[in-house]
Specification:
412 residues, 2 domains, alpha+beta, four-stranded antiparallel β-sheet, 50% helix
């Protein structure tokens, strides 16, 4: 194999060679980042969240009747909803919530020790902590365990004190916080029994992931209080815990069950928690699917381009090949000559592909969270390009073995 001759041949077709090299290197970049995106999306979907995801159904609805403007009426209908849902076959428990886990944004607020000095520097991580308000069974309904202290009770409910405050009376609220939040707010002492700007900590629960997109331990930060926020424009949110295997059956009955209590409500979404998780990561999985399609198409185009490039090369080199055949070159030598040009192109493209992989990864990191390229993935992408190019070149290479030395040299 004469490298100089091959390079000279490629230089004679600068435009076609440049286009093919760019195409091959871009294909390598796409394939590597596609695998990274796909693996990342699958990993996020499979990450244990720390609560009973597989057996929960989330319901979101908005009242359309003016009667719900009365907090007492709002609370009455909500309690009737919960009672009727709980009575369904296959339902273990149900509870109302001011917001749902697995979401971006929501009802967030600052959390800090009540005795923290005014001039103290607080962590930005504690500025937007999710505040969950539910009944006393809110955490148990999610399948979350209390690891220290106690759970909330009916006596901790401050709904009435909020909507019907007594003049001069200030009620201390009782809250339960996540293990990670407790350690962050009170790093130098036990959090149990301590007072925060949101209430006194009476219990600490085992961490579960509230927002999967948050980094480090921030994704575990949350506090729970016993309170029913009763605003009609804010809507109602329920989470239903069902027995294993009963998810679909209960989900089908929920709409009619809720509307039978009060029909003047718009049920915007009834979603199993696994569906909610899939929807939450729909952008990541959608982008991964898009890149997978693009990679597949690029590999297909690469095969076609490599075939056309090799076929054109063979056509232009018929006389040269004929001379080599007349001088005693074997068929396998001729095929090796044709394959060699494709392999040289793939080798050059694999070097350029390093920059394509890194460049595309940097561009994607500006808009989404993406892992860094892996050497093994790069090697697999290069191997794919080599195999695809070799397959595409096989037919033109095989045809060169059929060139008759006499026919090829007749014009000399």
């Amino acid at each position: 194999m004469n490298i100089k001759a091959l390079l000279k041949s490629l230089r004679l077709r600068k435009f076609a060679t440049t286009l093919l090299l760019l195409q091959l290197s871009l294909t390598i970049g796409l394939m590597v980042n596609t695998v990274i995106l796909t693996n990342s999306a699958q990993e996020k979907l499979k990450t244990p969240l720390g609560f009973n995801v597989d057996n929960l159904i989330a319901v979101e609805l908005t009242p359309t009747s003016a009667q719900f403007r009365d907090p007492s009426y709002f609370q009455s209908i909500t309690q009737q909803d919960i009672a009727k849902i709980t009575a369904l076959d296959g339902v273990i428990s149900a509870a109302y919530y001011n917001q749902l886990p697995i979401q971006n944004g929501g009802w967030n607020g600052n959390v800090q020790a009540a005795d923290l000095p005014d001039d103290a520097i607080t962590s930005q991580d504690l500025a937007y902590v999710p505040h969950f308000f539910s009944s006393e069974i809110g955490l148990k309904n999610l399948g979350v365990e209390i690891i220290e202290g106690r759970g909330l009770t009916s006596e901790d409910d401050f709904t009435n004190d909020y909507y019907n405050p007594k003049e001069g009376q200030e009620v201390e609220r009782q809250i339960i916080v996540s293990e990670s939040l407790a350690k962050r707010v009170f790093p130098n002492k036990p959090a149990l029994g301590e007072l925060t700007n949101n209430g006194r900590v009476v219990g600490i629960y085992k961490d579960f992931i509230v927002n999967p997109n948050q980094p480090r331990d921030i994704k575990y930060f949350a506090l729970f209080g016993n309170f029913m926020y009763s605003q009609s424009d804010f809507g109602q949110r329920y989470i239903v815990q069902v027995e294993p295997g009963q998810l679909a059956q209960v989900q089908e009955k929920l709409r009619d069950t809720i509307l039978s209590v009060h029909p003047e409500r718009d049920i915007t979404r009834i979603q199993s928690m696994p569906e909610r998780l899939t929807h939450f990561f729909s952008e990541e999985t959608g982008l991964a699917s898009l890149f997978a399609v693009l990679s597949f198409l690029m590999v297909g185009v690469t095969v076609v381009s490599s075939f056309a490039h090799a076929h054109f090369h063979v056509t232009q080199q018929r006389k040269y090949i004929g001379i080599r055949r007349a001088l005693g070159a074997r068929k396998k030598d001729i095929m090796l000559y044709v394959f060699s040009e494709n392999w040289l192109m793939s080798l050059i493209a694999s070097i350029i592909g390093i920059f394509a992989v890194i460049g595309l990864n940097i561009m994607l990191s500006q808009v989404i969270e993406i892992d860094k390229p892996d050497v093994m993935l790069y090697c697999l992408a290069v191997l794919t390009i080599f195999l695809a190019g070799t397959l595409a070149t096989w037919l033109p290479a095989f045809k060169t073995t059929k060139i008759s030395p006499v026919t090829a040299t007749r014009t000399l």
